[in-house]
Amino acid sequence: xxxxxxxxxxxxxxxxxxxxxxxxxxxxxxxxxxxxxxxxxxxxxxxxxxxxxxxxxxxxxxxxxxxxxxxxxxxxxxxxxxxxxxxxxxxxxxxxxxxxxxxxxxxxxxxxxxxxxxxxxxxxxxxxxxxxxxxxxxxxxxxxxxxxxxxxxxxxxxxxxxxxxxxxxxxxxxxxxxxxxxxxxxxxxxxxxxxxxxxxxxxxxxxxxxxxxxxxxxxxxxxxxxxxxxxxxxxxxxxxxxxxxxxxxxxxxxxxxxxxxxxxxxxxxxxxxxxxxxxxxxxxxxxxxxxxxxxxxxxxxxxxxxxxxxxxxxxxxxxxxxxxxxxxxxxxxxxxxxxxxxxxxxxxxx
Length: 350
Description:
The chain has 14 helices and ten strands. Strand 7 (212-220), helix 10 (227-234) and strand 8 form a beta-alpha-beta unit. It is globular and about 55 Å long. The chain is an alpha/beta fold. It is 42% helix and 16% strand.
């Protein structure tokens, strides 16, 4: 697998703080037994979920954003592995696969691009390489009827998650055609024109290529919807959205009613679950905002959609521990850890 580092038990335990009389998720979580036989290891694992990281910010930079989304994965993983293994979440239901490393691509671009325009074009070209690598892994996981949990990187990775899951579940005979639905809790639609791949158009490409059937965005901010994107969405019967303003300013519906509308809209087939960290007020991300939902709302969303959807995958994107402009928030990884555990617990209700 290109650009991918597989983890072994030693890698996991090096991040797990062992304590007498306690058991942490890191002591229970599964890893691949044979790195040379990945598909066999995934297929034979008793785990329901396969966890992997995409610590990259190439897609964000390709969209003119602030780098740093490559910093969340390790922080999240350290927090997640040190959660308690208990009756609420035991840990062995998760197989920790590893993470992608696209640093070499980014280094080449930074060393050779002559100006900002050339750098942006190179980043957009590089996103295509990331798409292929990520899709391959997601396809492999889902064709063996496991649920990918994907953490880190820009929202550009929604496209290979959708494409890989649609193709994988179709191959497994779980869905009749290679199409899935998606719910996205996000301040932005990421439905921009197909001008070259970046973090703002993953869902546009997925729909145009026929892998995304229905798409619903919850909590989108009216101030950040380009008019052309808005028209594309409202004129498409397979796309729906509930704005942040309709929920929290005009109070046309409660937050959980909005999430319920999304799960109802997408209930006819398997559904990818997306959450962009920039939807949470003051959470560190490339598009950090003082206005947004609370961490508790995000946790409620995760639990609700997990319990009320046919989950195809979970993808949490855009979070950062440190941005390239110097801003830091060491709590981002722990926040993502809460969201992942909420999703797994919600799936247990389903």
